[in-house]
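Give me structure tokens for this 88-residue protein.
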Amino acid sequence: MPYICTHMATVGVKGLTVICQVVLDTSSFSSWTDEGKHLIHGDGSTLWFDKSFTAVFFANGRMGLNAEHSWGDAPVMGHMSEYNLTTE
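Here you go.
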């Protein structure tokens, strides 16, 4: 069962809203294919994909992203993760 943390941000006077989601998942997968499938749809009851992006950290130390598929959100997340991987 994953532990779900949320990053909160103030939006004007309307109160608080979640802009992204960080999941500390206790699952561990033997292949990239199984891990990718889990990042795309989870198991149907433990991951929610209604935010701009969801960062999932697995028990084996690996991390994956699930980004919103709009024209503006997905390219930003793709460029950000590529930059982090190539300049590390």
